[in-house]
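Tutorial sheet, problem 5. The two components below are modelled jointly, 662 residues in total.
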Amino acid sequence: MRVAEERRAPAAVATTGDEAGVEVAVRIRGLGKHFGTGEQRVQALRSIDWDVFTGQLTMIVGPSGCGKTTLLSVIAGILDGDEGEVSIFGEPLDRMSDRARTRFRATNIGFVFQQYNLLPALTAAENAAIPLVIAGWRRDQAVRRASEVLASIGMGKKLANLPSQLSGGQMQRVAIARALVHEPRLLVCDEPTAALDHETGQTVMQLLRDAAVRPDRAVIVVTHDNRVFQFGERIAHMDDGRIVRLEQRAASKPSLSDFSPLL
Amino acid sequence: MGWIALKMLVGDRAKFLGIVMGLTFAALLITQQGSIFCGLMLRTCGQVSDITGADLWVMDPTVRYIDDVKPMLESNLYRVRGVEGVLWAVPLYKGQARVKISPEVARGRRAAVIEQVILLGLDDSSLIGAPPPYRVLAGNLRDLRLPDAVFVDSERLAKLYPSEDWTRVKKEGKTFYRRFLRRQLEMNDHRAVIVGVCEATRTFQTNPVVYTTYTRAKNYAPQERKILSFVLAGTEPGVSPKVVADRIRAQTGLGAHTASDFAWMTINYYARYTGIPINFGITCFLGFLVGTAIAGQTFYNFTIENIKQFGALKAMGVTNVRIVGMILLQALVVGLLGYGIGVGLAALFGWATQGGELAYFTPWLLLPITACSIVFICVLSSLLSVQRVIRLEPAIVFR
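Model answer (structure tokens):
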């Protein structure tokens, strides 16, 4: 089932990949996924058809258990769908071997997790450098590059701090730096504001939109926090394993300086 | 990724130290107990290794170890000399004797000191089997040819002279033993005079060793028709002692072994019939088991607690092979540290107890055995952890 797009936003925004400078980052056709068997069987995703475009911050929203994290996991290539096709920038994930998919993730996808998942023994700069190390960079070069990225998002004075010495917002910024340091074409964020207070969450979302969204990159954020919906330019509403509504809107763009006390 | 693995490992210091301590404990126990076992086993054949200069030991064919003396007719000495390839052959008496030291000699003691000793009777003319000069602490080996002369070993001299101030040994060194020269003993109602003190490997029976000549030993030993305990033989240059031993066995019907073979026969006997290896084996096994339990479980828990981090790394594109490599590197590092510290502590223990009653000898073979045990512990705990990580769905990071 292809969900018809509902235009609610006042400004007209491109909805297809035909517009100049915008391309389809994620193409999903007939995606289904279930967990368990017999009476325990739960259908997490039901015949999803959906496209995600570059140059936009796309949100997947919905109540708990509606399948949004499962959808994000399949898009990120860390969970297999049972049926249907998923391709990222034209590369069919379902036809890749595990090894190829792992390599693809390392190169093309950046991750921001709800619980940050920073390695507690590494400094902020070292944590942010991990994707570069995975890509084979030398330690000193990777840390230097990660330090630059951290400095560009206002974390220049916290490079040598361990995660335990950082606030929740700062840890999420390190996680964002880690997700961006290797310049992936797709950024997937799972509830990036769930562990943060409202203001810090706003700041993190602003940072994501300012630092992550580029014409050649797609950003997908899973959230159930309706206070940050304003940052999404495209919002997919999910319920019971389906995308029930697609919302296109011109996202409000408060300035990053509005949240500077929190940085 | 290696440095990330190492930082993850040492990041939690308490757990890191727990793993290293577990492995250290295992390595220490395996090396220490193994060394005590080897030291004890070496003592069983101490007299074989103490008697130097002979290529072959010839004995009654039913002899199983050094203390299993079965006297032979003295004519066997000449039979051995007649075998092709034998350059020389000399008699050796080995038996038990009872030493009595009268009260006035045993300084301040009212009762006489009576002690069992191991009596070694060496060939009168060549003194083959006597302690080498560097092990003589007081006196001169030539003096063994004087009337009633005996050498006694320094290790067990305290049993004969318990009233001496033995704390002065460390202070005075070799000169301490000069005071025993010319003191008299009584063996089998015969007078003996101490003309020298020498070092000897502690025996398994803990009795003092008394060296004298073969002829005189006959007087000190209880009356027996047969007195020849062993024949010590040298082989002609260029002839293999093993070949000559085979000839002796074939031509005389006696048992003939190289010194090292006889030492191993003795060790094997004690190992087989005394239960010592089982007792020490159990201790070593317990050390291994406890080490495995502590280190293995801590290492496993360490990995499991980091499972979400490993999941994140997998999600970010780290392959299973690299994750396994990280865990193996962590295991290797804690293994090396535990092994090094454990073996070091065992060596320190050996050094601190050297010269004491404790039998302690660390053969080089014990080190690779300990290393293999530690590697096994590390690999086992790693495998348990690794299979959890390999099976781990990276999607765990989104839960």
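Marking note: The helical segments of chain A are 68-75, 98-108, 124-134, 139-152, 168-180, 198-212. Full credit if you identified this.
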